[in-house]
Fold this sequence. Notes:
3-stranded antiparallel beta sheet, homodimer, 2 helices, elongated, Mth169, Chain: A
Amino acid sequence: MKARVTVTLKTGVLDPQGKAIEGALKSLGVAGVESVRQGKVFDIELSATNKAAAETELKIACEKLLANMVVENYRIDIA
Amino acid sequence: MKARVTVTLKTGVLDPQGKAIEGALKSLGVAGVESVRQGKVFDIELSATNKAAAETELKIACEKLLANMVVENYRIDIA
């Protein structure tokens, strides 16, 4: 079973990396960029055949390792 | 206009970061993880009001800065 976990910064948390990308895009002449925020994506292959079991495992993975729950949100999409 | 750009490694390109996460999840006791590949996600706000114009700008942004076309693929989703 394949799943995609997307980890993004919570609203209000400063994102200096995103700001740097925004500045770089502007200096490269890419027009119309108002803001950029960067996150991470994890494509995970699981041995679970049951969607609910896969989701439970992924929640544990996110909370233990993939996301910093203080400043980040995560989203799980199971294919 | 909001858009999300997802940059992932091409198939066959080694992903040591993903391998490390896979190992860490296993040692944390998260069961059933077969493989992990890490990518990046960019949430971009654009001033363009027209979807086609936004897509053109984002393609330029990806090819110039956000993705390394030698080893990475990108995907653009415009909300």
